[in-house]
Amino acid sequence: MKKTDSYNTSIVPYIPTGLTKVSTSIEITDKILTERVEYYINQGFEKYDLKDFEGAISDFTKAIALVPGFASGYYYRGVSKYDLLKYEDAIEDYTKAIEIDPFFSLAFNNRGISKYELQDYQGAIEDYTKAIEINPKFAFAFNNRGVAKFDSGEYRDAIEDYTKAIEINPAYANAYNNRGDAKKALGDPRGASVDYEQYNNLRINDSDK
Description:
Elements: H1 5-9, H2 31-49, H3 53-66, H4 71-83, H5 87-100, H6 105-117, H7 121-134, H8 139-151, H9 155-168, H10 173-185, H11 189-207
Helix pairs in contact: 2-3, 3-4, 4-5, 4-6, 5-6, 6-7, 6-8, 7-8, 8-9, 8-10, 9-10, 10-11
């Protein structure tokens, strides 16, 4: 199965680089508690950036212990577990985040990613679809759903999702590359070539910045 690095990076989980508010879904009135939670979350971010995923998990776990209803804490911990290839454990954390916040589109998206890694393509498609229902402009989820459909042999449906991702974000290089793969699989080498060329142009322009 021919896949490129761009295909892999197109489904890497997203994690914020900063935190301005602990959570919009819960209210913490104790200033000291708030500061402790923010401390552990920020420490977790720093360790995550250093690829100390175990350390990040430890800090996110401490934040969750202080505020069990902290959906984002479970999400961040799930991201770290994903990077340790602990996909089933990551799914548990994303599921907990979704139970707390049923409109957490990123958690649905990333749970889909973990299901995809476990080759549960239908489960992944369902999660991506839910993420899209919550956020119809979620280009990342459209691309990811296209990836799962592609590996399910649904090439035309995959093209529709990649195209939607591109409509939302015309500079989405990986979506062009993935759409090229789907067109090639359908016996459209000319169409695939156009998409691959656009992918290469976007990558070149991005590297020049």
